[in-house]
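Progress against Task 2.4 (sequence-to-structure conversion) is shown through the following example record, which the project officer requested during the mid-term review.
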Amino acid sequence: MSAASAATFVGIMALFNGFGRILWAALPDRIGKMPAFVGILGIQGLALLALPHAGSVALFWILAAIVYTCYGGGFGTMPSTAGKFFGVTHAGGIYGLMLIAWSIGGVVGPLLVSALAGSDNNYTLAFTVVDVLALIGAAIPLITRQHAKPALTA
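Structure tokens generated for the chain above:
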């Protein structure tokens, strides 16, 4: 891919990132916060699994658009999910911690992918590892339960 094509690709994917923020932010009101997170991570995981096996440029672009839409969706759903799960009193602090973890992933992820791809640039293993991490992330809301709210005493 030429530099101009790569720049075009990144620009178009940014649009899908923005679209995902709107799409996924509206969806939890209909299906629930945790099911939305499971959907985001599950769909993203499956698209990442298929990405290194894309047989055409068009399929690669479609799968990448799905990944970017889900990635943007995380930003569209995290604040309200933190408030719903932990209560609005703690939502700001929890959301801040979520963003720190997201940022650490933004640094560690590319380093991990680069190390796994190796000198022969074989990204199949790298995408498979990232896929497994996304699917583990999709399973966490399924096994996580909200703490019971303390009873009010008179």
